[in-house]
Fold this sequence. Notes:
The chain has two helices and twelve strands, in the order βαβββαββββββββ. β3 (59-63) and β4 form a beta hairpin. The radius of gyration is 16 Å and the shape is globular. 36% of the residues are buried. The longest helix has 15 residues, at 18-32. It has helices at residues 18-32, 85-94; strands at residues 9-12, 51-55, 59-63, 66-70, 103-109, 115-118, 130-136, 139-143, 153-157, 162-165, 174-179, 192-198. The strands form three sheets. A six-stranded antiparallel beta sheet has the order 1-10-7-12-5-2, with helices on one face. A four-stranded antiparallel beta sheet has the order 6-11-8-9, with no helix packed on it. Strands 3-4 form a two-stranded antiparallel sheet. The protein has a single domain (2-35, 47-198), classed as Jelly Rolls (Sandwich), CATH 2.60.120.590. The two termini are 28 Å apart. By secondary structure, it is mainly beta. Bound molecules: N-(carboxycarbonyl)-S-(naphthalen-2-ylmethyl)-L-cysteine and fe (iii) ion.
Amino acid sequence: xxxxxxxxxxxxxxxxxxxxxxxxxxxxxxxxxxxxxxxxxxxxxxxxxxxxxxxxxxxxxxxxxxxxxxxxxxxxxxxxxxxxxxxxxxxxxxxxxxxxxxxxxxxxxxxxxxxxxxxxxxxxxxxxxxxxxxxxxxxxxxxxxxxxxxxxxxxxxxxxxxxxxxxxxxxxxxxxxxxxxxxxxxxxxxxxxxxxxxxxxxxxx
Length: 205
Ligand code: MD3
Ligand code: FE
């Protein structure tokens, strides 16, 4: 693949100040109290090392029934809590004036959690960008190309960093190789929280 800067991958280092990171995390954790983190199971039956929950009208889930978006928490049966306004504002600023996000996946990486190389292909329209916010411990992120065999590059994502994936990068393979334990003190109990905003469903825009 072409250099990262030409693929539609945009990293905005320290997009959020330390104060903004803490305020956002407080808003997210208040919602997590209503929609607790749980450990999803892949369609093949393997528990993921990353714990997850969602905010917004739609949430990404995986279980024996496959990968999909659904409006309710798989364990509580309740609708997902709303997306904090600060995240909607960030999307409008950084991802553009298109359709607003309808899904925010919240990934929790405690010690040893990782995410294998994959593509995000469960959304209705790949023309919409994806925006990710990193909070807490620094992650070693791997970004490849649209083909699984394309070369990959390693990028560190630190607390407060935002990345926007648009154009060809929207369908690039990517994953989290590891998290640098103890590199931040932001997340209570340690680790890393990643917020991924997406337009998952069909509809306006
Ligand atoms: C590149 N999450 O939830 S965020 C995921 O840090 C996911 O938790 C990772 O991959 C995490 O699906 C990476 C950065 C990211 C998000 C979406 C992308 C990178 C992406 C979509 C296409 C290409
Ligand atoms: Fe992904």
